[in-house]
Amino acid sequence: MNKKRHSTMNTLKPLLLLFAIALIGGCKPEIKGELGEPTDKVKGLDGTWELDQFIQQDPNNPVLEERDMSEFYIVEGITPLRLIMNLSDRTYTVEQSIGKNFFGTSGTWELDDNFAPSNITLFGDEDTLTVDLGAMVLPTSSNLNLQYVRACADGFRNVIYKFNFKRVD
């Protein structure tokens, strides 16, 4: 009789464990409401963006050291580099009085993917530049982070420039 009860208990343990897992798993709250429409990432770029920080990074340095080089672009009393992005015709204009100009003076722009963009291409009057987006820019975003990777003809990446802009309008 003792062996029979022990055998029954060994059979019931896995069944009780399965029952407990099923009971816990069935207690998830029911999702209510709608998530709404996806946020328009293209619309998020519209506006005037003023350079707030300029960083240079060596991608070949094992510690990925970054150097803040903002002093070459941001000087007290002088308006920093500005990117004016126009949504209606997807044009851009650059206003710059100091520092190296990587963006040209004006042109058109295009995202690689309007729903989940990872980079933006600037088609300037004289050159075309593709830069990575540090993060998606929403209409409510106050920051625009662009990363320009300079590479040799063989693809060797030798420097990354990080432009951190703030929305001014």
Could you characterize what this model shows?
The chain is an alpha+beta fold. It has one domain (41-167): Lipocalin. Helices cover 17% and strands 37% of the residues. It is elongated.
CATH superfamily: Domain of unknown function DUF4822
- By CATH, the architecture is named Beta Barrel
The whole-number mean of residue pLDDT values reads 86
Are there runs of 5+ residues with pLDDT below 50, and where? none
Radius of gyration: 27 Å
Strand content: 35-45%
- Structural class of the helix and strand makeup? alpha+beta
Q: How many beta-strand elements? A: 9
CATH T-level topology: Lipocalin
CATH class: Mainly Beta
Q: In order across it, which strands form the biggest sheet? A: 1-3-4-5-6-7-8-9
* End-to-end distance: 84 Å
Number of domains: 1
